[in-house]
Amino acid sequence: MIEVIDYKAGNLTSVVKALNFLGAETHVTQSPDDVRNATKIVLPGVGHFRATQLLHDLQLTAATREAIANGVPFLGICVGLQWLYDGSTEADTTDGLGHFNSTVERFPTHFQEAGLKSPHVGWNSLEAIREDSRLLRGIAPGSFVYYTHSWRAPVSADTAAATEYGGSFTAAVERNNVMGVQFHPEKSGETGLQILRNFLEL
Amino acid sequence: MLTKRIIACLDVRDGRVVKGIQFLDIIDAGDPAELAHRHAALGADEIVLLDITATHEGRGTLLETVKRAASQLFIPFTVGGGIRSAADAEAVFTAGADKVSINSSAIARPELIGEIGASFGAQAVIVAIDARRATTGNAITDAEVYVSGGRKPTGRKVIDWAREAEDRGAGEILLTSMDSDGTRSGFDNELTAAVSSAVQIPVIASGGAGNAQHFADVFKAGRADAALAASIFHFGVTSSLALKEELAAQGIPMRLPC
Asked: Nearest C-alpha of chain B: how many angstroms from A28?
């Protein structure tokens, strides 16, 4: 079963709806056992990084670690991607999973000299798509996806695609079975559906 | 590069899409779910569904319509009209909306902005402001907020209210010029620029779209992050795609192909 983890960080409806539209059966859960036994795990989430504290409190962190060590494909969306890192400056006392070793940081609050606003809201393009990315298979560089966020992960060797907004940040991250996207594939039209389809086909 | 957004707005009354000219003369233009899908297919970056009669006739948002429209819509979808509480907002989110737009109810009880944001995130809360230029004093800095579909003046200044909405956790501002709305003679670029410069969150310009140049003007002179249009699309005047191609040719970043 594809387990969609509910940790009360925003609205799961859109993500579940998109996965179901693509023919996937999903189950929304807060149970560590469900996560351990999942065939795939999706961690959505918008809002504040401190909401991920509930993942620790519900023992879902250890269950997730176990599942991904067993090769279960994992997709984090938005805050779900950010949780894969060491942590976020948005909530200093809440640890991330630490699967990727960087800290998520805020866009500069004042980069109006560049004509940019923070939060970063709207459609922006995917660049530098890694050729070996399974999540982004068939996605052309320059394809647009929908963002709404103020914090972002830096570009690293695990970055599968980058987006430019006052500098490059990680749009998608991927190492083996562990993947994350900072944008909202469930709200990114055909491009987003293709990315979700790629994940479902893993 | 971050693009400017073209947002198709469906004004809905009694489950049908209508569009007011200066909020009065209303024409039946079709089924909201069908039109939402058509707009998405024709290149709209986002869909807004506003239940335009909800506030003054006391009707709730049409959850069934929302559900039907959302079922196969995979771009951002905002619903407004008649949302007075966090519970009202939750019902709309459950039906499939990604964001809610609140207007009169936020003026009446500004805490509502933070209450919805606390559960669903700031990005899910759009504060809609119906604005009229001031006839005395400075037309822009003294522009006034109206509520109840543009019927009731509030005595509040538009720029102050936009700043307060941001401070209280709004994710975006939807600014409608009551002076321009329905005229098809262009957005209020000056007022939009003033609001956009006063806040860090995105500002969606609304009211007055009649042709592609109006959009180019509001993105450049008006500093809008997104622009909303309704009537110019419904009757085949143009599509989002045609509009976006024309704007891209003017150097405005657009999501193409879409």
From this structure: 14
pLDDT bucket at A88, cuts 50 / 70 / 90: very high
**pLDDT of B135-176, one tens digit each?**
999 999 999 999 987 889 999 999 999 999 999 999 999 999
Strand partners, B152: B147
Select the residue from B90, B98, B244 to test the A interface by mutation, using most A Cβ atoms within 10 A. Answer: B98
Task: Please give the positions of A annotated as active site.
Answer: 78, 184, 186
Residue type present at position A123: W
The answer to whether residue B257 sits within a structural domain is: no
Assess whether B11 carries a catalytic annotation: yes
Domain CATH for A47: 3.40.50.880
- Residue A81 domain boundaries: 2-200
Helical segments of chain A, H only: 13-21, 32-36, 53-57, 60-69, 79-82, 189-200
Cβ–Cβ below 8 Å for A21 and B225: no
CA atoms within 13 A on the CB side of A170: 31
pLDDT tens readout for residues A24-43: 999 999 999 999 999 999 99
* Domains in chain B, number: 1
Q: How far is A145 from chain B (nearest CA, A)?
A: 9
